[in-house]
Specification:
With about 300 residues, the protein is an alpha/beta fold. Helices cover about 30% and strands about 10% of the residues.
Length: about 300
């Protein structure tokens, strides 16, 4: 994939391609405008990525805690398990990571980008244009024989100023109405979409009218994103159409950001349902569809 191409932001201004390859990152780290590296390792079975970060991370990478820094707190269950942080809280976290005005940012993880994409989406939505996701993450970096560092990284506080609302979102009402004028994509695994299993949230199934496009299928066997043509074909097969709106959700809004990256690479301007299934299923007044069809 040629990640030197550019994509358009929701506002129409040019922005860097969402992905950066290991080779491109290696080169940019040698330049005058070296990016800030953010290590966003998180997963449901190991939410604290600090021990893994200390054991080995890209040189200079700052650890970012998804649960405490990339999500809001103290909200009702109908806001979802990982509601968006407030702009002030996100700015405070970003400054603690050392982010400075005009500084490029590269985010990565060891989960195919499924957690780091949350940081990519939040920072882009907050107005940072030059944010990229390392394609292949830590695994691709080490597979290329490139060095890692150990221990903690404590940067000097940054001065970045963040806003909000630069990428589109919908709430539960908007998600309910979305299939009438666009495509609503459920990016969870097929078993959860069909309602066969539900390991985390209150009810099993999917938002009526949503189509199933599991996030993992956006990557190839080596853990890299499929190219733009393949991603476009994958989503079009599920019903996404050029020129028509598309919205994405997952369990709690984290891996939906990964689908947003894939759709952006494919040439779309995706809308995120941040509360996702965790918000929808926590509201007993919301209908639930099961089975393989949108319902």
């Amino acid at each position: 994939m040629d990640t030197a191409d550019t994509a358009d932001t929701a506002a129409g201004a040019p922005a860097p391609h969402p992905l950066v390859s290991v080779a491109e990152l290696k080169q940019s780290l040698r330049g005058d405008r070296s990016p800030r590296l953010l290590d966003v390792r998180w997963r449901l079975d190991r939410p604290d990525g600090r021990p893994a970060h200390r054991e080995g991370h890209l040189p200079g990478a700052v650890y970012v805690d998804l649960g405490s820094e990339l999500a809001g707190h103290g909200e009702a269950p109908t806001a979802g398990r990982h509601p968006l942080p407030t702009p002030d809280d996100l700015q405070g976290s970003a400054r603690s990571w050392g982010l400075r005005e005009g500084e490029p940012v590269v985010v990565y993880d060891d989960l195919g980008g499924q957690s780091a994409a949350r940081a990519w989406w939040l920072l882009r939505a907050a107005g940072l244009a030059d944010v990229r996701l390392l394609d292949g993450g830590l695994g691709a970096w080490t597979a290329a024989g490139l060095p890692v560092e150990t221990g903690d990284v404590r940067p000097e506080p940054g001065d970045v100023v963040l806003g909000s609302g630069q990428l589109p979102t919908v709430d539960a009402e908007g998600a309910a109405a979305f299939p009438a004028h666009g495509t609503l994509v459920d990016s969870r695994v097929g078993e959860r979409y069909r309602g066969e299993v539900e390991p985390v949230d209150p009810r099993a199934g999917h938002v009526p009218g949503a189509v199933s496009v599991p996030t993992a299928g956006n990557l190839d066997a080596s853990g890299l994103f499929l190219d733009a043509d393949a991603l476009r074909a994958r989503y079009e097969e599920a019903g996404v159409r050029p020129g028509e709106p598309v919205a994405v959700y997952c369990g709690s809004g984290v891996t939906a950001a990964h689908a947003a990256v894939a759709l952006t690479v494919a040439g779309y301007d995706p809308v995120l349902f941040p509360g996702s299934w965790s918000a929808w299923s926590s509201d007993p007044g919301r209908p639930v569809a099961t089975g393989a069809e949108p319902g």
